[in-house]
Amino acid sequence: DAGVTQSPTHLIKTRGQQVTLRCSPKSGHDTVSWYQQALGQGPQFIFQYYEEEERQRGNFPDRFSGHQFPNYSSELNVNALLLGDSALYLCASSLGWGGEQYFGPGTRLTVT
Amino acid sequence: QQPVQSPQAVILREGEDAVINCSSSKALYSVHWYRQKHGEAPVFLMILLKGGEQKGHDKISASFNEKKQQSSLYLTASQLSYSGTYFCGTAPPENSGGYQKVTFGTGTKLQVIP
Question: What is the pLDDT of residue A55?
Answer without folding.
Answer: 86
